[in-house]
């Protein structure tokens, strides 16, 4: 997903090639930082509960992208999606042996 986001921002919002790279870097950083939080929450609450909530929120935020037209709204929604991906990734590792 991260590899396509810079192309999407460049084509959809006519940004120069540097701006999408900055945006995608920050989004990837947000996902990476939220991963340990997902693991910590999975230890406290339970991985299956975290995954249920995160998948529900991912569904809603992904579908909501269909109606966003402004660059800032898309950036905010993608930030939420990347944070949720990080939480999901951190919680998912509790299921691995």
General description of the model:
The protein is mainly α. The chain has one domain (2-95). It has 4 helices and no strands. Helix 2 runs antiparallel to helix 3 (47-64) and helix 3 packs antiparallel against helix 4. The two termini are 27 Å apart. The mean pLDDT is 91. Residues 1-97 form the Major facilitator superfamily (MFS) profile domain. GO terms for molecular function: transmembrane transporter activity.
In short, what is this structure?
This protein is mainly α and 97 residues long. It has helices at 2-13, 18-45, 47-64, 71-92. It has four helices and no strands.
Descriptive labels:
single chain; 97 residues; mainly alpha; elongated; Major facilitator superfamily (MFS) profile domain-containing protein; MFS
Low-confidence stretches: none
Kindly state the number of beta strands.
0
CA gyration radius, whole angstroms: 15 Å
Mean pLDDT: 91
Output the helix-strand order: HHHH
User: Which band does the percent of strand residues land in?
Assistant: under 5%
- Broad structural category: mainly alpha
Give the quaternary arrangement of the chains: single chain
| Contiguous helical run count | 4
Task: Tally the structural domains.
Answer: 1
The shape, in one word, is elongated
The N- and C-terminal alpha carbons lie at a distance of 27 Å
Give the helix proportion (percent range): over 70%
Characterize the biggest β-sheet: none
Transmembrane segments: 50-69, 76-96
Protein name: Major facilitator superfamily (MFS) profile domain-containing protein
Main location: membrane
GO molecular function: transmembrane transporter activity
């Amino acid at each position: 997903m991260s590899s396509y986001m810079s192309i999407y921002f460049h084509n959809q919002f006519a940004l120069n090639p540097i701006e999408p790279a900055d945006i995608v870097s920050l989004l990837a950083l947000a996902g990476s930082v939220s991963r340990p939080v997902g693991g910590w929450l999975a230890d406290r609450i339970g991985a299956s509960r975290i995954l249920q909530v995160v998948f529900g929120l991912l569904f809603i935020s992904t579908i909501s992208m269909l109606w966003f037209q402004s660059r800032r709204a898309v950036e905010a929604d993608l930030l939420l999606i990347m944070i949720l991906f990080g939480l999901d990734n951190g919680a998912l590792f509790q299921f691995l042996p």
